[in-house]
Automatic annotation (TrEMBL):
It comes from Streptomyces himastatinicus ATCC 53653. One of its GO terms (molecular function) is FAD binding. InterPro entries: CO_DH_flav_C, CO_DH_flav_C_dom_sf, Diverse_Substr_Oxidored, FAD-bd_PCMH, FAD-bd_PCMH-like_sf, FAD-bd_PCMH_sub1, FAD-bd_PCMH_sub2, Mopterin_DH_FAD-bd. The lineage of its organism: Bacteria, Bacillati, Actinomycetota, Actinomycetes, Kitasatosporales. This is Oxidoreductase, molybdopterin-binding subunit. It comes from the Bacteria. Keywords: Oxidoreductase. It holds the Pfam family CO_deh_flav_C. Residues 1-220 form the FAD-binding PCMH-type domain.
Length: 326
């Protein structure tokens, strides 16, 4: 681990000032500290923001949900409003990491976590995320766990967060504060596809701080859930996952929200699946036909071609679960 200085801040203004001067924000530290140990990350200044008042879950005036950036994963998963209004979020969180990590890691930190690509974490390997212009060892290396959607010639790494998939499905917004004031960014625009600049992973401006993730109000009744497929039952990242929310009224699907994880360089919205569902009556043939559209645009690599079919099956299975038909 390289030498660094540490400062703990007590208010948002102090945090923004330190961040604008180049400090790296840290709260639970469950990702950043690991990367520092591996010398992948080498911040000169750590700014501890764990004492800021950003640790509440509240219902918005219009019936949505605001989750403070410093709410821990465990707290968010157990919160009665989260469990009642959006069980998809609780399920995604409970399928993430270990209980010990969920007790430490924050919602903001989870969204900001970096890829688990082994080449990114191996400082001897070529990785454009870590060293721009060095190349992408995963493209010709062992790429079983890598992306089939949203990749570029410069990077094929997946985003590892489970709850980010649920946020993407629900059209969440990220609330930010920075030197230029407050703003909101649609979740779909907050995490960036690699393109030609894989080292730039979020649409944050210099010194900006995540204050909350906000879920807009959705029509009721809303049935939702998260399904994660992985190599082992616990403490493993997704090969594929499906976050689905359906508003069914009068026997007809009025609104559908669908996103996938483990297959994209960012949590991957599936608009073709959503469009096929809306206006239709739930049925097993409908779920199968909609799921066939889940892998539109997929570009598999040598070792992850299985993800194309696995993604379709995962989406179909979760549609059956959430939609209530067998």
């Amino acid at each position: 681990m390289h030498p660094f200085s540490y400062t703990r801040v007590s208010d948002t203004g102090e945090a923004l000032d330190a961040g604008h001067r180049g400090g790296r924000y840290i709260a639970g530290g469950t990702t950043l500290v690991d990367l520092m140990r591996e010398t992948v990350e080498r911040p000169e200044v750590l700014v501890d923001i764990s004492g800021l008042p950003l640790d509440e879950v509240t219902v918005t005036e219009r019936g949505g949900l605001r989750i403070g950036a410093l709410v821990t994963m465990a707290e968010a998963a157990a919160h009665p409003k989260v469990r009642t209004l959006y069980p998809i979020i609780s399920q995604a969180l409970e399928l993430s990491a270990s209980a010990q990590l969920r007790n430490m890691a924050t919602i903001g930190g989870n969204v900001m976590q970096r890829t688990r690509c082994t080449y990114f974490r191996d400082v001897t390997a070529d990785c454009n995320k870590r060293a721009s212009g060095s190349g992408c060892a995963a493209r010709e290396g062992f790429n079983r766990t890598h992306a089939i959607l949203g990749a570029s010639d410069h990077c094929v790494a997946t985003h590892p967060s489970d709850v980010a998939v649920a946020f993407a499905a629900l059209d969440a917004r990220v609330r930010l504060t920075g030197p230029d004031g407050e703003r909101q960014v649609p979740f779909a625009d907050f995490l960036l596809r690699p393109g030609n600049t894989p080292q730039r992973e979020q649409s944050l401006r210099k010194g900006e701080l995540i204050t909350a993730v906000e879920i807009p109000a959705h029509p009721r009744p809303l049935t939702s859930g998260y399904l994660k497929v992985r190599d082992r039952q616990s403490y493993e990242f997704a090969l594929t996952s499906a976050a689905i929310a359906l508003h069914i009224r009068g026997g007809v699907i009025r609104e559908a929200k669908v996103a996938a994880g483990g297959v994209g360089t960012v949590p991957w919205k599936l608009p073709a699946v959503e469009r096929h569902l809306v206006g239709e009556r739930p049925s097993a043939p409908l779920w199968a036909a909609a799921a066939e559209r889940a892998a539109v645009g997929a570009r598999p690599l040598k070792h992850n071609r299985f993800k194309v079919e696995l993604l379709k099956r995962t989406v179909e299975r979760q549609l059956r679960i959430v939609g209530g038909t067998k």
